[in-house]
Write a structure and sequence with these properties.
Blueprint lengths: L1 E6 L5 E7 L5 E6 L8 H15 L4 E6 L4 H6 L3 E2 L4 E3 L2 E9 L19
Antiparallel strand pairs: 1-2, 2-3, 4-7, 5-7, 6-7
Amino acid sequence: ALAIVAVSSENEPVGIGMLDRTGEVLLCYVLPEVLGQGVGHSLLRAMLRAAEDWKLKRVFLESTETARAFYLRNGFEPEGEPVLAGGLWGYPMQRRVTSNNGVERTAGTHGGASR
């Protein structure tokens, strides 16, 4: 699995993302005080780059109600019916992993595989 920690300019953790090798986004969380500042988007882009490097075809997750709009804005689509677990609704979602994922890469970081 991959774990990514986003830090503030003061080097304090403000978000965390976690992706396993099957493509499941296990965690993408940012502190409330940094919502809307691009931290979650940056975490998600880093996970998509890892998924591309791992040659995965898709990533998937179970979103909370509050995070659904975020994932939809970032290219995820609903996948199946909502699931009730522990008194909370989870919304299965997925996104295809495409070459580049709309992410700029610097020379030497792509890994050389073409699709």
